């Protein structure tokens, strides 16, 4: 049944939304990252998604879009962008990014011994670099002038970062999602090709 569902919807809208986030800038608590790696989750159409079954925790994924879905796993917070439309329950996990502003703050949060390319590599490290916690759950990422977590335009960063061209100008690679047990071979992880901040692929030991 799971394979049949995915065969019927090979490329749901959340995969387009996921690819469009690559190269965008996300600011959180005095740090800004350029998003370099994401994973798409298609809600009730996707058994790997938290929203495959509707629960109080996954309710936020059913909309409205552009809200921040935060969850905790293995002691780390993970940040997701709800993509909508309302009722679809799709979301994009932010897996990795390049710190382009607030490097000193990210270093204090993550550890001053780390190389800059490792600060936001992996979803837990990305959230920690941005200072994202459960207090940010439900934040509107498109809200203007927010002091919390939000998407920003390149011209809001000073100095203007390298590689801040149009989002559709980046080369994108795709592959299986990391650590997913169910539907492990669905290639809904996307990353900026050859970017040094992208995390390593690890297959779940019980993946199927």
Q: What fraction of residues sit in β-strands? A: 15-25%
Rounded mean pLDDT score: 88
The global form is globular
Radius of gyration: 16 Å
Structural category is alpha+beta
Question: End-to-end span in angstroms?
Answer: 13 Å
Largest sheet features: 8 strands, antiparallel
List SSEs in N-to-C order. HHEEEEEHHEEE
Enzyme class: hydrolase
Pfam families: Pur_DNA_glyco
EC number: 3.2.2.-
Keywords: DNA damage, DNA repair, Hydrolase
Task: Describe this entry's structure for a reader.
The protein has 208 residues and is an alpha+beta fold. It is built from 4 helices and 8 strands, in the order ααβββββααβββ. Strands 1, 2, 3, 4, 5, 6, 7 and 8 form an 8-stranded antiparallel β-sheet that branches. A hairpin with a 2-residue loop joins β3 and β4. α3 packs across α4. The longest helix has 9 residues. The two termini are 13 Å apart. The N terminus is likely disordered.
SSE arrangement:
Layout: H1 2-8, H2 13-21, E1 25-28, E2 31-41, E3 68-73, E4 76-82, E5 91-101, H3 103-110, H4 123-130, E6 149-152, E7 172-175, E8 189-192
Helix pairs in contact: 3-4
Properties at a glance:
208 residues, alpha+beta, eight-stranded antiparallel beta sheet, 4 helices, 8 strands, 15% helix, globular, hydrolase, MPG_sf, MPG
Summarize the structure.
The protein is built from 4 helices and 8 strands; from the N terminus they run H-H-E-E-E-E-E-H-H-E-E-E. By secondary structure, it is α+β, with helices and mostly antiparallel strands. The protein is globular, with a radius of gyration of 16 Å.
